[in-house]
Amino acid sequence: MTDSNAVIVYGAGISGRGAAEVLAKAGQQVFLYNDSDCQVEPALAELLQQAGGRVVCGNFAQLLPLAQQVVLSPGVWADNANVLLAEEQGLEVISEIELAYRLYKGHLVGITGTNGKTTTTTLVGQMLDCLPVKTGVGGNIGLAMSKEVAQLDEQSWFAAELSSFQLEKVQSFAPDVAAVLNLTPDHLDRHRTLDNYYGAKKRILTQQTGQQVAVLNYDDPLVRAWGRECQSRVCYFSRTTELEQGVFIRDGVFTLKWGELEAGICAVDEVHIFGGHNEENVLAAIGCGFFAGVSLADMAQVLRNFKAVEHRLEYVATIKGVPYYNDSKATNTDAAVKALQAFKDGHVILLAGGCDKLTELETMMAVVKEKADVLILLGAAKERFYQAAVAAGVEQIKVVDSFEEAVELAYELAKEPQVVLLSPACSSFDMFKNYPARGHRFKELVHQLESRA
Question: What pTM was estimated for this model as a whole?
Answer without folding.
Answer: 0.80
